[in-house]
Amino acid sequence: MRPSGALVTGIIAPFLFLYLLELAIGAGLISRFAVPFPSDVLAAIPGLVRENNLLGRFASTLGMASLAGLLICTLGVALGAFLARFRRIGIAAEPLVGAFAASPMVLAYALFLVFFGRNFVAAVAFAVVGGLPPVILKTREGLSTVRPVFLNVGRSLGISSRQMFFKIELPAALPTIFTGVRLGFVFGLIHLIAFEFLLNFGGLGGLVAELAELYNPPATMAAMLFVIGLSAMVFFVLERAQRWIR
Amino acid sequence: MQPATAIKRPDEGDAYVAFDNVSVSFASPRGTVTALEDITFSIPRSSFVSVIGPSGCGKSTIFNVLGGLLRQTSGTVRVDGSPVSGASKGAGLVFQEDSAFPWRTVLDNVAFPLELRGVAKDERHSRAREFIKLVGLTGFEGKYPSELSGGMRQRVSLARTLVTEPALLLMDEPFAALDEQTRLLIGDKISQIHHELKQTTLLITHNITEAVQLSDKVLVMTYRPGRIKSVIDIDLPWPRSSEVVGSEAFGAYVGRIWQDLREEASRGLEDASRGAAA
C-alpha cells in the first residue's frame, strides 16, 4: 500500500470502529453501562474543558512528561556512556539494569512519596526512574558496538578522546541510542500517568481517577482519549526525530 | 602502451619507509601466534609498493604497524627516519572495510580531517571539493554513503584520506569488495592520483593484477609466519592505465608473482581445510 493510502486508512479506521461500536451498543450487543456510546464520550469533552480544566491538565501532564523526557535522555545517555567506557562495570551492571527494567516499578510509588512528598517533583522523579533503563541499556549497546573501522579512522587521524566520542562514537551509536530514548519516553509517560492516577494528583491521570470515582463513564473515556492523544503525540514526534537522525 | 619516460624511477637509496627485522606475535587461546617474522624491506620516497600474499599471512599486520595502530613485538619501523610510535600525522590510511561515515554527506566525510584540525568551514569545503573531484565524485557532494555504490564509498574514504595530503598513503585491500572491472577502472584513478600527488604509497592486496597494474615494486609474502619471500620490481612504463593489463610484459609479471605465491596460497588453503575439518 502507498504511504498516502496507509495514512487515509489510519485516519478512517478509528472513526469506522467508533461508528460500529455506536451501532453495537445501540443494538444491545454491548452493555451501555460497561461501554458508553462514543457519541456520549465526544459530547462529554466540552464539559471537561469547562468544568474540569481538561486543557490545563493536559498541559500539566505534557509539561511534566517533557521535563521527565529531558532528564531520562540526559541521565540515561550519560549513565549508558559511563557503562560503555568502563567495560567491566558495564558487564556487571547490565543484568541489574535489565532486571530493574523488568520489575513492576509502579509498586514503588509510595517510596517516592516518602522521599519527595505529594508533588510534581515526585511525579517527575517516578517517571524518570521508570524511563531510564532502556536508555541506559541501548546507549551502552550503541557505544559498545561502534564499528572498529570508524574508531581506526579516528585513531589514524590522531583524534583526541573527546573528539573520538563526540565526532565518531556518539553519532555512530545514535540510531541505537534513539531506540532506547523512544522506549524511555514511552515508559516514562506510562509511569507519570500511573503516578497521577494512583495518587489522584495533577494532570490527565488524576482526572481519569476523579471521573472514575464519580462513575462517569463517558467523561472518563473522554479523559482517556486525551491520554491516548498525548501518547500518540509523543510517539509521532519521536518517530519523526528518529527518521531525521537515520 | 605508452613510452616509459614520464616519471623518474624512485631512487632506491632514498628509503622513506624502512622495516628492519620486524616481528609481531599475538597471544591466542592456542598459544602464541607469530604474524610477522623478521620482516625487512624499504619503500623509496614517492614510490608505490604493494604487498601481496595469501589470506592470513600478516599483510594487514604490516599496514597496522606502519599506520601506528599496532606495535611490533621486535624490530624497528621508521618513516622518514623517525621511529613509528602511534598514529603518524604524515600517514593517511584507507581501510579494507567501508569506512565512510554514514551520518555525514560525501562533502562532510571528506572535510572531516580538516574539521578536526579546526579549518574554517568555507576553506575545508573548498579543499574537500578538490579531492572529491580528484576521485571522480563531483556532483555527489550532498549524498549520504547509503546512496552510493561500494566503489563510490571507497572513493569517499580515499578522498577523506587524501585531503590531509599525507606524505605516506597506506591502503589495506581497499577495493577487495569490488568487481574486477570496477577495480581495474579505480586502479586507473589511483594511478592517476599517485602520478599527481606523488605520495609514497603502500598497498596491501591479494590481487596480483592490481599489484602489477599499480606498483613500482611488489613484495610477495609467505604464509604463516609472514616473511618476505621475494621482491619483484615492476619495470612497466609510466603513466600506466588498465590497458597495460593486455600486454605481454604484464602477463609475464603476473606469472612470475603467481609462481612465488602459488605454493604459499596452497599452504594457506590446506591449513584452512585442516581448520575446517577440526
Task: Quickly list its features.
heterodimer, A: 246 residues, mainly alpha, MetI-like fold, 2 domains, B: 278 residues, alpha/beta, Rossmann fold, 6-stranded mixed sheet, 7 helices, 24% strand, globular
Structure commentary:
- The complex is a heterodimer of chains A (246) and B (278).
- Chain A contains ten helices and no strands.
- Chain A is mostly helical and 246 residues long.
- Chain A has helices at residues 3-26, 38-51, 54-85, 87-102, 109-116, 120-144, 148-156, 161-199, 204-213, 217-245.
- With 278 residues, chain B is of the alpha/beta class.
- Chain B is built from seven helices and ten strands.
- Chain B has helices at residues 59-66, 106-116, 121-134, 150-162, 180-197, 208-214, 248-277, and strands at residues 15-28, 31-44, 48-52, 74-79, 82-83, 91-94, 168-172, 200-205, 217-221, 228-233.
- Residues 1-12 of chain B have low confidence and may be disordered.
- The interface between A and B is medium-sized, with 16 and 23 residues.
